[in-house]
Amino acid sequence: MHHKSTKKISFQQTKIEKNFTSGSLTSYSGLIVFNDYLEKIGLYSLINKNFTTIKQNATKVLNSQTLISIMLANLCGISRLSNIENFSNDPLIRKILGLKQKLDDSTIKTILSKMGQIGANNFLEMSFEFIRKDIEKHCSSVITLDCDSTEKTVYGHQAGAEKGYNPKNKGKKSYHPLLCFVSDMKIVVNSWFRPGNTYTSNGIMEFMKQTLAVLPTKIKKIFFRADSGFFNGELFDLLELEGHDYLVKAKLTNQIKSKLGEQNWQQIDKDAAICSFEYQAFGWEKSRRMYCVRILKKYEKKEYFGSFELVPIYDYFCYCTNLKGLTAKQIHALYGQRAETENWIEHTKNQLCAGQTITNDFHVNDILWQLSVMAYNISVLMRYESDHKIWRQEPKTFRDWFICVPGKVVTNARKTTVKMSKNYIYRKKWEQLTEKIATAA
Fold first, then answer.
1. 63-75 vs 43-50: helix crossing angle, rounded to 10
2. Short-list 141, 145, 146, 147, CA closest to 221
3. Whose CA is closest to 186, among 353, 349, 380?
4. CA atoms of 145 and 401, how far apart (whole Å)
5. pLDDT at 58
6. Nearest 5°: phi and psi at 390?
7. How would residue 22 be classed by pLDDT, with cut points 50, 70 and 90?
């Protein structure tokens, strides 16, 4: 027997009261709005459909209840299974999930372990179905995709945690996830959780083919932007074949460095110069245009035959692109706009807890990563649909203002409300957000 849905509860609009006079105290009053929003956009039903539970006599917790509890915990800035266990004991959370008692951490781990690699893959596919609808709804036919990888240092002997790319904590074990953002909305369209010894470019062709397949048919043109880990001729061939534009930072190989030394640099100010040239790397089917910027870093004293001279030291930035009509300076500035992607990645990791809940099972960690990424997307989408001023705030700011708000869960005549203090400092903003969300989805 398949149990296809968790018990749901419909909430009235949250009331603002002068005092907490009755009911059970909750620290997460704002989740009442998220609950309403997630039901309207169909995420709960999507999770129920993809993660049905074969219900037996001993079954007390459904797969969907477990996944949703972790996702809501991440929205509230909560990581680690023991903390998620305490979170699930909150009266509002138990009402939302239809739980009779809290989820203990061993039960959560057991359920996720049974899902395994198939569960991780299913969740990724489900997230594609979910995010495709929002791209269709909010984006034009032309979008920007920013790709990047990130390291997540771990301490211990977790499966898949290996020594590899980890510039901030060299020599430490880590994971090395890969992410792709739709920059127009700041949402993650695709994310792969990978071992720490995986090089950035490993699997990027499959990653990009999968990402392009996720996009709705209304998307006709893509501007793809990425760092030197994506400096790959096959990838450029794929994007050109599909009629898309790209801008990728080049690896400063010995061959490119040699080319830079041969150029006639055009000085654009006292510290910067530019050049461009044709370049064909080994294995490429054709040459491509490279745009380079040289910026004076400092002068160093060098001794030549007993005398000292000041020698300029430069930083070099080199890019490969099929964009036309732009100078190297403009290309450099356009690439610099992707710096915000690093902020979004940090928001996903540090504010939505991606990679902070770690077990000894790699596939469980993959599911936990995907749940955090989903929580990040939900946070962004809800703000995007309701208020673009709030959308520009960091997720933590939004959470502090509108989610982690003390209140009382009160049930009268089978209707549940959450009462918040009349003196809450962001009361008016909260009420405005609630009204917008009611009509947004």
1. 140
2. 141
3. 380
4. 30
5. 59
6. -70, -35
7. low
pLDDT of residue 116: 94
State the amino acid at position 89 in one-letter form.
N
In degrees to the nearest 10, what's the CA dihedral of 27, 32, 33, 38?
Answer: 120
List the alpha helices (DSSP H) in 76-215: 81-87, 91-97, 105-138, 204-214
User: Rounded to whole angstroms, how far apart are CA atoms 384 and 312?
Assistant: 47
Mean pLDDT over 419-428 rounds to 83
Contact criterion met (CB below 8 Å) for 207 and 192: yes
Q: 407 — phi, psi (to 5°)?
A: -165, 180
For residue 101, give the nearest of 93, 113, 109 by alpha carbon.
93
Residue 430: predicted pLDDT: 81
DSSP-derived secondary structure for 311-339: EEEEEEEEEEE---S--HHHHHHHHHTTH
| Phi and psi, residue 131, nearest 5° | -75, -25
Q: How many CA atoms lie within 13 A of 18 on its CB side?
A: 0
Which residues have a Cβ under 8 Å from the Cβ of 261 and sit 6 or more positions away? none
List Cβ neighbours of 363 (8 Å cut-off, separation of 6 or more): 113, 115, 116, 117, 119, 120
Question: pLDDT tens-digit profile of 278-330?
Answer: 999 999 999 999 999 999 999 888 877 778 888 899 999 999 999 999 999 99
Give me the chain's average pLDDT, please.
87
Query: Quick one: CA dihedral 86, 92, 93, 94, positive or negative?
Result: positive
Task: State the average pLDDT over residues 193-214.
Answer: 90
d(CA 284, CA 431): 57
The pLDDT of residue 387: 73
Q: What angle do CA 332, 336, 339 make, to 5 degrees?
A: 160
Q: Transcribe 50-104 into DSSP letters.
A: HS-EE--TT--S-HHHHHHHHHHHHHTT--SHHHHHHHTTSHHHHHHHT-SSPPP
Measured CA to CA, the distance from residue 317 to residue 180 in angstroms comes to 23
> In whole angstroms, what is the distance from residue 423 CA to residue 102 CA?
31
